[in-house]
From TrEMBL:
<keyword id="KW-0315">Glutamine amidotransferase</keyword>
<dbReference type="GO" id="GO:0006487">
    <property type="term" value="P:protein N-linked glycosylation"/>
</dbReference>
<feature type="domain" description="SIS">
    <location>
        <begin position="43"/>
        <end position="182"/>
    </location>
</feature>
<keyword id="KW-0677">Repeat</keyword>
<dbReference type="GO" id="GO:0005975">
    <property type="term" value="P:carbohydrate metabolic process"/>
</dbReference>
<dbReference type="GO" id="GO:0097367">
    <property type="term" value="F:carbohydrate derivative binding"/>
</dbReference>
<protein>
    <recommendedName>
        <fullName>Glutamine--fructose-6-phosphate aminotransferase [isomerizing]</fullName>
        <ecNumber>2.6.1.16</ecNumber>
    </recommendedName>
</protein>
<dbReference type="GO" id="GO:0004360">
    <property type="term" value="F:glutamine-fructose-6-phosphate transaminase (isomerizing) activity"/>
</dbReference>
<keyword id="KW-0032">Aminotransferase</keyword>
<dbReference type="GO" id="GO:0046349">
    <property type="term" value="P:amino sugar biosynthetic process"/>
</dbReference>
<dbReference type="GO" id="GO:0006002">
    <property type="term" value="P:fructose 6-phosphate metabolic process"/>
</dbReference>
<dbReference type="GO" id="GO:0005737">
    <property type="term" value="C:cytoplasm"/>
</dbReference>
<feature type="domain" description="SIS">
    <location>
        <begin position="215"/>
        <end position="356"/>
    </location>
</feature>
<feature type="active site" description="For Fru-6P isomerization activity">
    <location>
        <position position="361"/>
    </location>
</feature>
<comment type="function">
    <text>Catalyzes the first step in hexosamine metabolism, converting fructose-6P into glucosamine-6P using glutamine as a nitrogen source.</text>
</comment>
<dbReference type="GO" id="GO:0006047">
    <property type="term" value="P:UDP-N-acetylglucosamine metabolic process"/>
</dbReference>
<keyword id="KW-0963">Cytoplasm</keyword>
Length: 366
């Protein structure tokens, strides 16, 4: 079943060109730039009624939710908040018919997310489920349901399902933005082309695996790690840190790079490894300033940067290059670098990557 791979996690990382291709298959029209999702039965009138969106999820799915917020707020005029399932279910949230709750869950069986969905329906909100398991509880309880089509994910660490969640969030954002008349056809067509080009870029990135493995070998004995990014790369920093702590048991922190000087910079000293996600986007130059602040404290910086970036080499110790792409697609490619990095560190440390201690694949108890 592992198709010749050492374990499920590595197999699932390598399945991403296919899982991403499946996530978009038949759902994007290249010529018109439109999203085709018959399962999303929200009419124009329904969408015009939506005054706010609340995304609810746990763990890695929560990080995909944070990306979803950036995308929906950029492509529509609907305000979005993102909440952790275990907090949302006990919060004094005021939900009603004008709220669309998006429940993101790979398994569709996470207890806190299920409770959030049930509570939201009771309060009159409409719920859109995005899960990977057909007929899962979250999908059954919701009003609308989109499936990720990733195939089973066995490794406890969420990998291929995270990247598909992001792509689906982008398609939902495009759909809502188009229905609200906020996106021009040209803009849609460009985004659709970027999404369609993604699977081949992932394939190309995976050919760089040995370099990432080499870096993991070099840093395998580090006691702690920092991951920093801005904008869409901030949730990716959180996700990189979660993946590393989950499977290698190394203490790792993810931060919005602009937040460093509000406290964590006190922890940055000589040789502390910092992974900086510095791909091309609106905040690239701000990120470069943050990297300079980090280097000034003599930390070791590994940057993830675009292939065409000619500046970054002079600033940092190591650079992992990803294929050039727009600001939405680059975070997906950076994620895969971080998945491989966490994977190899865990393997070098002799950790059981598919079944990390104390954790279960789906958290069906509170
Ligand atoms: O099945 P779900 O997406 O609802 O699971 C949520 C989290 O339990 C899950 O993403 C967890 O954080 C992963 N093990 C992280 O790799």
């Amino acid at each position: 079943e592992k198709s010749g791979y050492e374990n499920y996690m590595l197999k699932e990382i390598h399945e991403q060109p296919k899982s991403l291709r499946d996530a978009i298959a038949g759902r994007l029209n290249e010529l018109t730039g439109e999203v085709v999702m018959p399962e999303l039965t929200l009419t124009k009138a329904d969408i015009d009624d939506i005054k706010r969106i609340v995304i609810v999820a746990c763990g890695t799915s929560y990080h995909a939710g944070l990306i979803g917020k950036y995308a929906i707020e950029s492509m529509t005029d609907i305000p979005v908040s993102v909440e952790i399932g275990s907090e949302f279910r006990y919060s004094a949230n005021r939900l009603g018919h004008e709220t669309l709750v998006i429940a993101l869950s790979q398994s569709g069986e996470t207890a806190d997310t299920i409770a959030a969905v049930k509570g939201s329906i009771k309060k009159g909100a409409r719920v859109l489920a995005i899960t990977n398991v057909v007929g899962s509880t979250v999908s059954r309880e919701a009003n609308y349901s989109i499936y990720m089509r990733c195939g089973p994910e066995i490794g406890v660490a969420a990998t291929k399902t995270f990247t598909s969640q992001i792509v689906i969030m982008y398609m939902v954002a495009l759909y809502l933005g188009t229905m609200k008349g906020m996106l021009g056809a040209e803009q849609n067509i460009r985004m659709v082309a970027e999404l369609k080009a993604l699977p081949n870029k992932v394939q190309r990135l995976l050919e760089n695996e040995r370099y990432i493995m080499g870096l993991a070998s070099l840093f395998r004995n580090a006691g702690q790690f920092f991951f920093v990014g801005r904008n869409l790369n901030y949730p990716i920093a959180l996700e990189g840190a979660l993946k590393l702590k989950e499977i290698s048991y190394i203490i790792s922190e993810g931060y919005a790079a602009g937040e460093l000087k509000h406290g964590p910079l006190a922890l940055i000293t000589t040789n502390i490894p910092v992974i900086a996600i510095a791909t091309q986007c609106a905040t690239y130059h701000k990120m470069v300033s943050n990297i300079k602040e980090i280097k000034a404290r003599d930390a070791s910086v590994i940057a993830i940067a675009s292939e065409s970036d000619g500046l970054i080499d002079q600033l940092v110790d190591f650079v992992v290059r990803i294929p050039d792409s727009n600001e939405y697609i680059a975070p997906i490619l950076s994620t895969i670098v971080l998945q491989l990095f966490a994977y190899y560190i865990a393997v070098f440390r002799g950790c059981p990557v598919d079944k990390p201690r104390n954790l279960a694949k789906s958290v069906t108890v509170e």
